[in-house]
Specification:
Layout lengths: L34 H12 L7 H8 L1 H24 L12 H9 L3 H39 L10 H15 L8 H23 L17 H18 L15 H31 L17 H37 L4 H4 L2 E5 L3 E5 L1 H20 L3 H29 L6 H33 L7
Antiparallel strand pairs: 1-2
Helix pairs in contact: 1-7, 1-9, 2-3, 2-8, 2-9, 3-9, 3-13, 4-5, 4-13, 5-6, 5-10, 5-12, 5-13, 6-10, 6-12, 7-9, 7-10, 8-13, 8-14, 13-14
Length: 462
């Protein structure tokens, strides 16, 4: 949940009784996060690439089941997020600056499992965003081609150059120290999110189609395809709500947990309305043939400039969102290295370098090498496995249960000392068990989809 700040920067803290203008009462950097910035961060994280797959997800599940599952995910996310917000401070009143800190505080040795789930999900999300951004860039070029040559033209465009271009941009951005301070970037990204989601909804409203129970067995898909794609659709929906990893630098007054609960309610409510509109309107537009990405798979051809603009908004949003999810992993590795080798100049020393057009910049060799290597790795993986829906579904399934459900619920039980086998304890354990089953089914469905995609795929071909 976002009431924890260190996903952006473990050194950031809230503004309490400061010992200096820029320092908080515990000697850490003063925090300036507000309800508005927290809400913007949540919207930036939530309305992302996941929204593009919701028309396809609704097509697999149908109006009723699809909408019900979306709302259910929203309710579960909000409920467990309030639990997580209340765990920001430990029983002794000390602050937990990272997700791992709060797990360590309440659950002890399970912290290693939370770290594996957290950082694995962050890596997977950055790969997914790289794939999505390249698809949108390809769509811009295709839209122009279809406009010039006709909708039936063969406009084949490889996405590998665009994946590489996106990677180059992220290499540059990843070198910015104190990236967490660029709160305006989240606001810009949130505006981009609203823009392309609204355009998609508007284009879909213009098309009339029918559908009640989703894809039809024997007509659109086989029985087994219907089952696996339905499970994969649930994984896509889980991914579309994956923001438990995104934390914020909130002030200490009003209390962080109260502000985060309000921000979470505002963020989830807003995004759920957009999700239902995008999913249902996209399904209404395309019916049971809804594409995996409803802005890039060309159900909409005209007006081509509007399709271009929507995809450009997606790219701008994902450029920022990539850093929101990558920065905590960067910081985690760098902090570990600094702790292990505090005297090593390669790791700790900052160098001032004059860069053309940018002036003096601070360069750290560890940051330069490690972050560049990370971006290159995620870029290469995205090139090898550019499968939008299957990747999103797998990431969503893998991250949803441990980070959004299991750890928050277990910490809540520990914090509130919920009596074992009481009605509340049984209800919470039942919630955890049901969500585990849903996540496993979603993961299986996504893996089946990934296997089917790999069978017909030739790497580094159009």
């Amino acid at each position: 949940m976002k009431s924890f700040d260190a996903v952006h920067n473990p050194s950031a803290v809230e503004s309490g009784d400061a010992t200096g203008n820029n320092v908080d009462d515990d000697g850490r950097e003063k925090r300036t996060g507000t309800l508005m910035t927290a809400s913007a961060h949540i919207i930036t994280a939530v309305i992302g690439s996941g929204v593009l797959s919701l028309a396809w997800a609704i097509a697999q599940l149908g109006w009723v089941a699809g909408t019900l599952i979306l709302v259910t995910f929203a309710v579960i996310n909000y409920y467990t997020s309030t639990m997580l917000a209340d765990c920001y401070r430990s029983d002794e009143g000390t602050r937990n600056y990272t997700y791992m800190d709060v797990v360590r505080s309440y659950l002890g040795m399970k912290v290693q499992l939370s770290g594996l789930a957290q950082y694995g999900s962050l890596v997977g999300t950055t790969i997914g965003y790289t794939i999505t951004a390249s698809i949108s860039l390809v769509a811009i070029k295709k839209a122009n081609c279809f406009h010039d040559k006709g909708h039936g033209a063969k406009c084949s465009v490889p996405n590998y150059p665009f994946i590489a271009a996106f990677g180059i941009v992220e290499v540059v951005l990843s070198q910015i120290p104190n990236f967490h301070k660029l709160s305006w970037l989240s606001i810009v990204a949130a505006v981009m999110s609203f823009s392309y989601a609204s355009i998609g909804i508007g284009l879909a409203i213009a098309v009339v189609a029918n559908g009640v129970t989703g894809t039809v067995v024997g007509v659109d898909v086989t029985a087994s395809d219907k089952i696996w794609k339905s499970f994969q659709a649930i994984g896509d929906m889980a991914f579309s709500y994956s923001f438990s990893l995104v934390l914020d630098t909130l002030r200490s007054t009003p209390p962080e947990n109260k502000v985060m609960k309000k921000a979470t309610l505002a963020g989830i409510s807003t995004t759920t309305v957009f999700y239902i509109l995008c999913g249902c309107m996209g399904y209404a537009a395309f019916g049971n043939r809804a594409p995996g990405d409803f802005l890039t798979d060309f159900g909409f051809y005209e007006p081509f400039w509007l399709v271009d603009f929507a995809n450009a908004c997606i790219v701008v949003h994902l450029i920022a969102a990539y850093q929101v999810f990558a920065q905590p992993f960067f910081q985690f590795v760098e902090d570990k290295c600094i702790k292990a080798w505090p005297e090593n100049n390669f790791i700790t020393k900052e160098h001032s370098v004059n860069i053309l057009f940018l002036g003096k910049c601070r360069i750290n060799y560890l940051r330069l090498v490690w972050r560049t290597a990370y971006v290159v790795l995620t870029t290469v993986v995205a090139m090898i496995f550019p499968f939008f829906n299957s990747i999103l579904g797998l990431i969503g399934a893998a991250a949803f249960w441990p980070l959004t459900v299991y750890f928050p619920v277990e910490m809540h039980i520990s914090q509130r000392k919920v009596k074992k086998y009481s009605m509340r304890w049984i209800a919470l354990k039942l919630l955890v068990s049901v969500c585990l089953i849903v996540s496993l089914l979603a993961a299986i469905g996504s893996i089946v989809g990934l296997i089917n995609s790999v069978k017909a795929y030739k790497p580094f071909h159009s």
